[in-house]
């Protein structure tokens, strides 16, 4: 009897120890997963770059970051909202559609009210290339040409249509629009089966390295003008950008070092449910190590701390704003508006 009682008490004591110790172990490390995109794109190394910087301070913050390859923006928004991911890389137009429940989007009529912005990253430029023989030098020269605008359902197709309409071109009437995948367009351009193609992407891009490396001479085309300026003003997820042609595409027939255009941005988002200290720590480490971060991928070469606050539609996460205020990048007025100090431009609001 005494022996049985002894073992019973011992088992009970061990169970109590396990229960008591479990929260302590869990509290030591907060595990954070960042949703990205395909492993061959820019989103995956972007998530990896952020995780690498944050994990150097895992003992200080108690945060351990991992990266997950995903289907991209839509998946990441939905996974962040469901709690399956803590952070995600999301194209800025998708962020806008999600927070607003935009008509025609996956979240039509269902605004994702808990979505929060942290910062934006590299630009994904609406890039237009054309064969030299086509005579296309600006977007306005596309009338009457055979142009690939992107496959149906792709984000780049809508970007192309927006650009054309802003330039006063009806893609259904004023040109022969092709709807093929971006991966197929360089070969068709080199073969002379199309005159030009659009592709929304970060640079450098393998597609444009291929497009500019063949026998057919190719140039990058300006996508600028009053209509484009009005488009950017109307749709806040767009921003001006430029393509570093000379540095990345020596085969292109362009005299300029860069070619001006516009685009969306890759943005870093989270949920209102993610603790302030976690969002603060990640924001702080990326911005405090800004120069090192820029060197982690060629697409980051054009980043500035100021333009990393642009292209964001969802309210800022309070943890991110806490760091931006400490760093002297923003002020917050009595109504919760986030205002960039460098030019007094309103960047958004602080979420709750």
Structure description:
By secondary structure, the chain is of the alpha/beta class. The protein has 2 domains: 9-123 and 265-349, D-Maltodextrin-Binding Protein, domain 2, CATH 3.40.190; 125-264, Periplasmic binding protein-like II (D-Maltodextrin-Binding Protein, domain 2), CATH 3.40.190. 36% of the residues lie in helices and 23% in strands. The protein contains 13 helices and 13 strands. It has helices spanning 2-28, 43-55, 58-61, 73-82, 92-100, 155-166, 185-190, 206-211, 226-234, 245-248, 276-288, 290-294, 318-326; strands spanning 30-35, 63-68, 87-91, 115-131, 146-148, 176-178, 196-201, 218-220, 239-244, 258-271, 330-332, 337-340, 345-349. Strands 1, 2, 3, 4, 5, 6, 7, 8, 9 and 10 form a 10-stranded mixed β-sheet that branches. A 3-stranded antiparallel β-sheet has the order 11-12-13, with helices on one face. A hairpin with a 4-residue loop joins strand 12 (337-340) and strand 13 (345-349). Helix 6 (155-166) packs across helix 9 (226-234) and helix 11 packs across helix 13. The radius of gyration is 24 Å and the shape is globular. The termini are far apart. Mean pLDDT is 89; it is low at 1-7 and 16-26.
> What is the CATH third-level topology name of the largest domain?
D-Maltodextrin-Binding Protein, domain 2
What is the element string, with H for helices and E for strands?
Answer: HEHHEHEHEEHEHEHEHEHEHHHEEE
The structural class is alpha/beta
Roughly what percent helix? 25-40%
């Amino acid at each position: 009897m005494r022996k049985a009682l002894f073992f019973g008490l011992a088992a009970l004591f061990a169970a109590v120890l396990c229960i008591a110790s479990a929260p302590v172990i869990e509290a030591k490390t907060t595990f954070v997963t960042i949703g990205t995109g395909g492993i061959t794109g820019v989103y995956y190394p972007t998530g990896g770059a952020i995780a690498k910087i944050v994990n150097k301070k895992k003992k200080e913050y108690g945060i351990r970051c991992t990266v997950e390859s995903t289907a991209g923006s839509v998946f990441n928004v939905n996974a962040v909202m469901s709690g399956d991911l803590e952070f995600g890389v999301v194209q800025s137009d998708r962020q806008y559609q999600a927070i607003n429940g935009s008509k025609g989007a996956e979240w039509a009529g269902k605004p994702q009210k808990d979505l929060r912005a942290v910062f934006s990253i590299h630009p994904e430029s609406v890039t237009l290339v054309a064969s030299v023989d086509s005579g296309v030098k600006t977007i306005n020269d596309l009338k009457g040409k055979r142009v690939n605008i992107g496959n149906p359902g792709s984000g780049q197709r809508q970007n192309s249509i927006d650009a054309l309409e802003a330039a006063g071109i009806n893609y259904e009437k004023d040109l022969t629009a092709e709807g093929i995948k971006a991966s197929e367009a360089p070969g068709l351009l080199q073969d002379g089966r199309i005159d030009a193609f659009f592709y929304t992407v970060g640079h450098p891009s393998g597609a444009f390295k291929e497009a500019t490396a063949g026998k057919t001479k190719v140039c990058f085309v300006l996508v600028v003008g009053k209509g484009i300026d009005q488009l950017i003003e109307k749709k806040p997820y767009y921003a001006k950008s430029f393509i570093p042609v000379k540095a990345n595409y020596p085969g292109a027939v362009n005299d300029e070092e860069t070619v001006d255009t516009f685009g969306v941005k890759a943005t870093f988002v989270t949920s209102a449910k993610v603790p302030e200290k976690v969002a603060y720590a990640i924001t702080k480490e990326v911005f405090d190590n800004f120069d090192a971060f820029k060197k982690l991928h060629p697409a980051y070469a054009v980043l500035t701390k100021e333009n990393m606050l642009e292209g964001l539609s969802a309210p800022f996460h309070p943890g991110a704003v806490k760091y931006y205020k400490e760093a002297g990048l923003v002020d917050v007025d009595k109504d919760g508006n986030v205002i960039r100090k460098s030019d007094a431009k309103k960047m958004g609001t602080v979420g709750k």
